[in-house]
Amino acid sequence: MSFSFIPERIFRDVTMITPAVLRQLEVKLLILDVDNTIAPYKTLTLEKPVLEWAESLKKAGIRLYIVSNNKGERPEIFASLLGVPYIKRAGKPSPRGVRQALARTYTSPENAALAGDQIYTDTIAANLAGVHMFLVEPIKFTNFFLAVRYFFELPFRHEKRK
Ligand SMILES: [Mg+2]
């Protein structure tokens, strides 16, 4: 449990986080960021590969939990599409939302991972909560600000937790 910008693993997209990867690390709870992790900003649907991926994890006994900073309806919409619980307004980089998900599922941090696209919110929150951090490449840059922030995240994106 520490303050760190460095993710443990990096994946091209969430569907690369397979049951085998999770089993190897004894991860039983996968906490999902919403925006740019499972769907681009503003969309209200999930792509078929993401739905099939989520289904394959559930079949493998992995629990999913959405923890999003989004204040709108999208966390709830995606949670119901996936059939999983959710926390919105999570306030990442605060570890509060991640800890709530752990508490509600009776999961210890070592058996949980967060999949998210950002260093300054997701990665810090995961590291503070002591869960595994899987950084994914953002699905899409919808504005200039996000592209600039991604640029400043690059030094951390090349490093992995030892
Ligand atoms: Mg995000």
Characterize the structure shown.
There is one protein chain. By secondary structure, the protein is of the alpha/beta class. It has a single domain (9-157), classed as Rossmann fold (3-Layer(aba) Sandwich). The protein has six helices and six strands. The chain has a six-stranded parallel β-sheet with strand order 1-6-5-2-3-4, with helices on both faces. Helix 5 links the parallel strand 5 (112-116) and strand 6. Magnesium ion is lined by residues 33, 35-37, 116-118.
Keywords:
binds magnesium ion; 38% helix; 162 residues; alpha/beta; single chain; Rossmann fold; 6-stranded parallel beta sheet
In short:
This protein has six helices and six strands, in the order βαβαβαβαβαβα. The protein has 162 residues and is of the alpha/beta class.
Lay out the secondary structure.
Elements: E1 9-11, H1 19-24, E2 29-32, H2 48-59, E3 63-67, H3 74-82, E4 86-87, H4 96-104, E5 112-116, H5 119-129, E6 132-136, H6 144-157
Parallel strand pairs: 1-6, 2-3, 2-5, 3-4, 5-6
Bound molecules: magnesium ion.
CATH homologous superfamily (4th level) name: HAD superfamily/HAD-like
Helix content: 25-40%
- Low-pLDDT parts are none
Radius of gyration: 14 Å
Question: Could you state the order of secondary-structure elements as H and E?
Answer: EHEHEHEHEHEH
Q: What is the helix tally?
A: 6
At the first level of CATH, what is the class? Alpha Beta
Second-tier CATH architecture: 3-Layer(aba) Sandwich
Ions, cofactors and other ligands present here are:
magnesium ion
Q: What is the overall pLDDT average?
A: 92
Shape: globular
